[in-house]
From TrEMBL:
The lineage of its organism: Bacteria, Bacillati, Actinomycetota, Actinomycetes, Micrococcales. The keyword Hydrolase does not apply. Belongs to the GHMP kinase family. Homoserine kinase subfamily. ATP binds at residues 110-120. Catalyzes the ATP-dependent phosphorylation of L-homoserine to L-homoserine phosphate. It comes from the Bacteria. GO terms for biological process: threonine biosynthetic process. It comes from Citricoccus muralis. Residues 237-300 form the GHMP kinase C-terminal domain. Pathway: Amino-acid biosynthesis; L-threonine biosynthesis; L-threonine from L-aspartate: step 4/5. This is Homoserine kinase. It is found in: Cytoplasm. It catalyses: L-homoserine + ATP = O-phospho-L-homoserine + ADP + H(+).
């Protein structure tokens, strides 16, 4: 999971905070996600069957992290680890502190590829922190979504990471909200993940501040069609994934990805840039088309200057999972 510097949490915490007891272990498992799905910019997301697993144990003192998989040897392993820093900050806001933490992260979601690694980290931190609290202090699902989305800056990845499946999210009166749907069982995501990452900030920096009214209207129509295609009629996925708001505009930052999307769509495949990129995803209608999409992706990437991983990632319908163990008690979900 990606990381950011701790924001002043090493300073002495204010008196009057309640302390999380030592000897509590919490485990969370959070899926990868693909946001936008073409026209659903900053609002639609889909959970994918690729998971980051994080375990924390409260200890008497000190903050440490062991990171396996993606980010190992790169991300911090002290109190500045993103999950530790975010977890502590959330507890502080709730009036709690934790004396120390040992964290073990098994990261499978690639960083900086448009597959929701940042959202998985923020969701993990909020879920871990909430599970450390007494049962009667825990937040509602709506509050957890809102807290993680505010940390992330938007809910399009956080919502499917928490709920699984397909989600449509929005902001209203300062709160993030989401509605979850079950995708049609024939929908099969296929991804092509490049070796080189791309920062979300770079990709967002290429977007215009305004778009013409007719462009916004056309895009809104395709969002409605996309929901119908994903949940009811997958044969409409090619038309439903047409976007005018963000993918072409980001081509300077990922010309190979956008070029591959265009070529796959010319072949009749519902190809999109996953999130802010540079991963390319095809939403296939059935396994036969998914196998064909995988072959087409591999053919389209022959001669690329960088390695790509092409694989089928089924939709994850379970969403985030949480298990808690308190000294002398069994693990509970």
């Amino acid at each position: 999971m990606p990381n950011r510097p701790e924001q002043g949490l090493d300073a002495s915490l204010e008196q009057g905070l309640r302390s999380v007891p030592v000897g509590v272990t919490v485990r969370v498992s959070v899926p990868a996600t693909s946001a936008n799905l073409g026209p659903g910019f900053d609002s639609m997301g889909l959970a994918l069957d690729l998971r980051d697993d994080v375990e924390v144990t409260t200890v008497d003192e000190g903050f440490s992290a062991v990171v396996q998989g993606e980010g190992a040897g790169v991300v911090p392993t002290d109190a500045s680890h993103l999950v530790i820093a975010t977890l502590r900050g959330y507890l502080l806001e709730r009036g709690w502190e934790v004396p120390g933490l040992e964290l073990v992260a098994t990261n499978r979601i690639p960083h900086g590829r448009g597959l929701g690694s940042s959202a998985a980290a923020h969701a993990s931190a909020i879920l871990l922190a909430d599970a450390l609290l007494p049962q009667d202090e825990r937040a509602s699902e709506a509050d957890l979504l809102n807290a993680a989305s505010h940390l992330e800056g938007h809910p399009d990845n956080v919502a499917p990471a928490l709920a699984g499946g397909l989600t449509v999210s929005w902001e209203e009166t300062g709160r993030y909200r989401s509605s979850a749907m079950r995708p049609h069982p024939a929908v099969v995501p296929v991804v092509a993940i490049p070796a080189r990452p791309l920062s979300t900030e770079t990709a967002r920096g290429l977007l215009p501040a305004q778009v013409p009214h007719h462009v916004a209207a056309a895009n809104a129509g395709r969002v409605g069609l996309l929901v119908h295609a994903l949940t009811q009629v997958p044969s409409l996925l090619l038309a439903g994934t047409r976007d005018w708001l963000h993918q072409d505009q980001r081509e300077p930052a990922m010309p190979e990805s956008v070029g591959l999307v265009r070529e796959l769509r010319r072949q009749g495949l519902a190809a999109v840039v996953s999130g802010a990129g540079p991963t390319v995803m095809v939403l296939a209608d059935g396994m036969d088309q998914a196998d064909g999409a995988r072959t087409a992706m591999q053919a389209g990437l022959e001669g690329s200057a960088q390695p790509w991983r092409v694989s089928i990632l089924p939709v994850d319908s379970a969403g985030a999972k949480v298990e808690t163990h308190r000294s002398g008690q069994p693990i509970s979900g």
